[in-house]
Amino acid sequence: MQFQFDFGNFDGFGSGRSGPKVKKPGKKTISFLLLIALIFIGIYYYIALPAVNYQETGFWSVLITILILLTVIFAIVRGIQGEEKAKVLFKISSIMLVITIGAFAIGMLLSSQIISSKKYAGRLKVENKAFEKDMKETERITDIALMDTAGARIIGDRAIGSLSDVVSQYEVSDSYSQIDYDGKPMKVAPLYYASFIRYMNNRKAGIPGYVQVDPIINEAKYVKLKNPMKYSPSAYFSKNLKRHLRFQYPTAMFEGYYFEIDNQGNPYYICPVLKAYSGLFGAKDVKGAVICDPVTGNSRYYDVKDIPQWVDHVYDGELLLKKYNWKGLLSGGYINSIFGKKGCKVATDDYGYRVIDGDVWAFTGVTSVNGDSSNIAFVMMNMRTAQSKYYPVSGANEQSAMEAAEGQVQHLGYSSAFPSLINVSGKPTYVMILKDKGGLVKMYAMVNVEKYNIVATSTTQKGVLKEYKRLLKEEGLISSKEAGTESEETKEITVADIKFIPIDGNTYVYITDRDGQVYKQEFSKNEASIKYKPGMKIRIRYEKSDDGINLIPD
């Protein structure tokens, strides 16, 4: 067998004839590549929903990515085709990329706290107030919302647990909003679609209602709407609330989507809109809000000064804490916040709520930058208007107060929720709930801010306030008249019978004397009562009760 090779068929050998020519791309190739890039950009926008706003860093990231993509496409076409047009396009896109990256870097620099510390510090105006004069005295704590979000979730889930048609298709949102509802504190959360399949099965029916939790009496109810909600953060495609609003307001920088109800119980989503007040991206703060009706999808933008009074969640608590820290750290300049730290102070890590005169206020302690376990003041910030009040009160911070309350009931293993701040006879006071391991409210506690060794606990709100005032009187901080203990009596009795009765996880001692009078006391207040026997004589201090069962306060 004989093989023959014709080297002349190869380019560069012998005959000099070239081999098969590679077909160079034309305009169709460029158009195709650009179309693919455009499709990817469209998909990204539909999913990520960035604001088309030069004050949004995400917008610049997308813009830079697009320019990089175009530069690469034109570079490939130039390298393969070598046309003058491709070279020009490559040069233009490269220059635009460099300019864009440079502008972004300059914008970041101008937005930094190093250059614009005064602008950051000026985003919050704070009034200095005297606590005992400005904060209304608390006569009763039965109208104060003490329940935290974790407790609301437990009670809210139970509210729909028996509704089989609801619980099988929907779930309660984890995001409970603290609102003022017709003059009373309330927590509300919408139902969400439980999954994509549940959404597909119920997209025409919509979301039928929401859960309303009363944080005072610790009860929840499911509210069924006359017309269901069609737009929700848990919905998909065009009914997704975020997508729906992004297409209506393509340039808006939304800070969140907060569910509220008006005083008639109608549902709305409150969507704050931010604006940068330092450079291109710095000191972002609320400039207004979009209020969206999730039933119809209708929405309207309001400047912050024009937002309706029934709306509560315009400034998120985290944003308010951030604004206070800007003021507390940067009022003396950026260099001072790093080195000298003269006059620098920061908010503590968490915040609570107070509903006062129809508005929801976020409050937090203020501490020095040294980060010790004491507060030097408190600040209260209105969540609708950002109006802020500074109370120069020193004492235990919130975590220390919570630990003090837990220490009183350590034998029961209860944990404390974040406290609320109230004024009791002119004394700054923490009040909080104590929960069992299941998250249910079992007791109430009050801790004095300035002397946090003064701790009162009780199974009732009325009882804890009375006990706390008694402790203040014993410490000489208030009078007997302020404590309401003028009606207390002291006498010696002979025990005829004694019973230890458990009620709601707590043990109570019921003592009957030889005259048939009954006296009640929490066992944890006087564990020595375990030694009481019929026939013993004991001296007690008690308050007469209308129901014939006299209360021994300690």
Low-confidence stretches: 1-19
Gyration radius, in Å: 33 Å
Count helical runs: 14
Strand content: 25-35%
Number of strands: 28
Q: What number of structural domains do the residues give?
A: 4
SS class: alpha+beta
Mean pLDDT: 88
Q: Give the helix level as a range of percent.
A: 25-40%
Shape: elongated
Biggest sheet architecture = 6 strands, mixed
Please report the distance between the alpha carbons of the first and last residues: 117 Å
Describe the fold and architecture.
The chain is an alpha+beta fold. It folds into four domains: 27-111, no CATH class; 143-314, no CATH class; 398-483; 489-551, Beta Barrel (OB fold (Dihydrolipoamide Acetyltransferase, E2P)), CATH 2.40.50. Helix content is 30%, strand content 31%. A hairpin with a 6-residue loop joins strand 22 and strand 23. The longest helix is centred in the N-terminal third of the chain and has 28 residues, at 84-111. Mean pLDDT is 88; it is low at 1-19.
